[in-house]
Automatic annotation (TrEMBL), chain A:
Cross-referenced SUPFAM superfamilies: Thiamin diphosphate-binding fold (THDP-binding)
Gene3D superfamilies attached to this UniProt entry: 3.40.50.970
Single Gene Ontology MF annotation: oxidoreductase activity, acting on the aldehyde or oxo group of donors, iron-sulfur protein as acceptor
Species assigned in the record: Desulfovibrio psychrotolerans
Protein name listed in UniProt: Pyruvate ferredoxin/flavodoxin oxidoreductase subunit beta
Keywords linked to the UniProt accession: Oxidoreductase, Pyruvate
Automatic annotation (TrEMBL), chain B:
CDD domains on file: TPP_PYR_PFOR_IOR-alpha_like
Highest rank taxon of the organism: Bacteria
Domain Pyruvate:ferredoxin oxidoreductase core, residue spans: 251-338
Keywords: Oxidoreductase
Keyword Repeat recorded: no
Residue intervals passing through the bilayer: none
Annotated Pyruvate flavodoxin/ferredoxin oxidoreductase pyrimidine binding domain residues: 20-190
SUPFAM superfamilies linked: Thiamin diphosphate-binding fold (THDP-binding), TK C-terminal domain-like
Full protein name: 3-methyl-2-oxobutanoate dehydrogenase subunit VorB
NCBIfam families: PRK07119.1
PANTHER family recorded: SUBUNIT OF PYRUVATE:FLAVODOXIN OXIDOREDUCTASE, SUBUNIT OF PYRUVATE:FLAVODOXIN OXIDOREDUCTASE-RELATED
Pfam families registered for this protein in UniProt: PFOR_II, POR_N
Length: 273, 355
């Protein structure tokens, strides 16, 4: 009989605590992937997280990193200010679809367009989770929510917004990919997508964006297995998994070059107590 | 505060604000164009990067105030500036700054309202500035310059107070002080005190516990605890109350007016004094905390009061609260949308004097 060996454990950045997310929710997987990537990239001590609104506001309870809380939708603006103040740190936001694609549309578009050296993890589950299952900008046609009880109708509520397609078309975006958390295979791909979205910030190339198609079994009124099936069969056909922009692959630096002003900072600084 | 003074220069109040902020160690500026404060971002767009700082023209006032929140979390000396309708858009972020105990400086070059109003001068934002302005029980320190030199000086003071109390500080100017040109003697403080910001700001959790800057308190009793702490802070802030007290010793009537209107009223008072009328002026330099003790002391001496504002009656409520045990204050409001001169105030002052 051989002694027990630990062959797999949580990355050091993850805090050991009980989850507050519902059974079958994909935030846990998304948190874990972010944690793994930050750990593997050696960013544990240098990461600043910007939390947003909704169920995922508590990401700061699961990752052992410095964090600030942003108002609804404004995480990309908060991250812009934080990164400008702390240019040597890794800054990322973690936002849901209601936060990013509805009230926060202006902030995400302009942060990406400016080529802010920040990374955004966008969790798209086509519904408002924390507030109890209302319609999101990403709610699919025909999907029933508490505020479109008859099913979303394009004529009435507009068509679901495809964020990665929008972000991928902006000049400051360095990397933009849509991934999914519905299967082991897709989860592995999602991790690579997160890593690339993070690497472009580390390399100073530009804005990194990764969309993760996720489930909300509670508000979808289905079990976890059915939720995964829905992602596969209903979400992915409308939200195709693809790389929408990869400046590194093109070998070009399309985003705006930024004058490196950080070196001169401090020269004029007075004595600071 | 020891300081290095430099040669006197002839500049606009808006430029004095920008230069004062630079002297105060500004490193991050976020803003969005709106009249009549555009000279501030225009000046800083070249001058701040030149000293290694960050200048961002945001997509909106909403974004600029939230960029300010992010930079404040990073421990930076950060600022945004705007004018009335833009300040309204910033209120959510200002509430978050207050709720998260973060230092930031916000300049409002007050223009006329409500709504789009006009781009002329007004003091219509007094309530918004001194009552929190956004959601929740919070206060911001409010400084009110009446001259270009005060505008410069108060920027240095604003950053100091923001870090001292870990609280947003509002500098409430108006279109007069922003747009007029005056001689200003710039000065640079020899030391900048960040009051231990490195002990709470976000800088990466290397070798220490992680830090969390937030305004969400869901645990039973946690929000009450935070509000008690905030209220204790606002009580401590009362020590910062200041006013310019002019010719009040033998005055029968004390006029209370702030900012550029306070300065115009001072001209009226000088003229009336020359004619033998016993009138004085209290010009609050801080609007929150309000210099209530100064007014209460004068009220105890039995003096009459008249509050003059360039609005329909806002600060007069604070004046009345300050002197309520001993007397009351009349009010004269110069309607926003009209630019007053010192002549406009002599009759209302004489009427209150009873002559």
């Amino acid at each position: 009989m051989s002694a027990e060996q630990i062959v797999f454990q949580a990355p050091e950045i993850m805090i050991d605590r009980a989850t507050h997310y519902c059974p079958g929710c994909h935030h846990g997987i998304a948190h874990r992937l972010v944690g793994e990537v930050l750990t593997e990239m050696g960013l544990v001590d240098d990461t600043l997280c910007v939390g947003s609104i909704g169920c995922s506001v508590f990401i700061y309870n699961y990752l052992n990193v410095d964090a600030v809380e942003a108002p609804h939708g404004r995480a990309p603006a908060v991250a812009t200010g934080l990164k400008r103040a702390r240019k040597d740190k890794f800054v990322f936001t973690y936002q849901g679809d209601g936060d990013l694609a509805s009230i926060g549309m202006a902030e995400i578009v302009h942060a990406a367009n400016r080529g802010e050296r920040i990374s955004v993890v966008f969790v798209n589950n086509t519904v408002y989770g924390m507030t109890g299952g209302q319609m999101a900008p990403t709610t699919l046609i025909g999907q029933k929510t508490t505020t479109c009880p008859g099913g979303r109708c394009a004529d009435r509520e507009g068509a679901p917004i495809r964020m990665s397609e929008i972000i991928g078309g902006l000049g400051g975006t360095a990397y933009c990919e849509r991934a999914s958390l519905d299967s082991v295979k897709n989860i592995r791909r999602a991790k690579k997508a997160i890593r690339k979205a993070f690497e472009v910030q580390q390399q100073g190339i530009g804005f990194g964006f990764v969309e993760l198609l996720s489930g909300c079994p509670t508000n979808w009124r289905m079990d976890a297995v059915a939720a995964n099936k829905r992602i596969t069969e209903e979400m992915i056909p409308y939200f195709p998994l693809a790389v929408f922009k990869d400046v590194t692959a093109e070998g070009a630096r399309e985003c705006m070059p930024e004058a490196d002003l950080s070196e001169s900072a401090g020269k004029s600084a007075k004595e600071v107590k | 505060m020891s300081a290095t003074q430099t040669k006197r220069i002839f500049i606009k109040g808006n430029e004095a604000i920008a230069r004062g902020a630079l002297a105060a160690g500004l490193t991050c500026y976020f803003g969005y164009p709106i009249t009549p404060q555009n000279d501030i971002p225009e000046f800083l767009s070249t001058e701040l990067p030149a000293v290694g700082g960050q200048f961002v023209q945001a997509e909106s006032e909403v974004a600029s105030a939230n960029m300010l929140l992010g930079a404040a979390a990073g421990g930076a000396r950060a600022m945004t500036t705007s004018s009335s309708p833009g300040i309204s858009l910033m209120q959510e972020a200002i509430s978050y700054l207050a709720g998260s105990d973060l230092p930031a400086v916000i300049v409002n070059i007050n223009r006329g309202g409500p709504g789009l109003g006009d781009i002329g001068t007004s003091q219509g934002d007094y309530f918004q500035s001194t009552r929190g302005g956004g959601h929740g029980d919070y206060r911001t320190l409010v400084l009110a310059p009446g001259t270009c030199q005060e505008a410069y000086d108060m920027m240095i003071e604003a950053f100091d107070l923001a870090f001292k109390y870990r609280n947003p500080v509002l500098v409430l100017g108006d279109a007069i002080v922003g747009q007029m040109k005056e001689p200003v003697t710039p000065w640079v403080p020899e030391t900048i005190n960040n009051y231990g910001a490195e002990d709470w700001c976000l800088s990466g959790a290397r070798g220490r516990e992680k830090r969390l800057l937030k305004s969400l308190f869901l645990e039973e009793g946690a929000l009450a605890g935070q509000n008690i702490r905030l209220q204790e802070k606002y009580t401590a802030m009362q020590a910062e109350a200041r006013a310019d007290v002019f010719a009040c010793d033998d005055a029968e009537l004390v006029v209370v007016a702030y900012g550029s209107i306070g300065r115009i009223v001072k001209s009226s008072i000088r003229r009336l004094r020359a004619e033998g009328h016993k009138v004085g002026l209290v010009r609050p330099l801080t609007l929150y905390p309000f210099p209530a003790a100064v007014l209460e002391d004068l009220a105890r001496q039995g003096k009459k009061f008249l509050t003059i504002e360039h609005n329909c009656g806002q600060m007069v409520e604070d004046v009345r609260l300050s002197i309520r045990k001993y007397g009351d204050s009349d009010f004269h409001g110069h309607m926003p949308g009209n630019l007053p001169g010192s002549d406009d105030f002599t009759d209302p002052i004489l009427a209150r004097l009873g002559r």
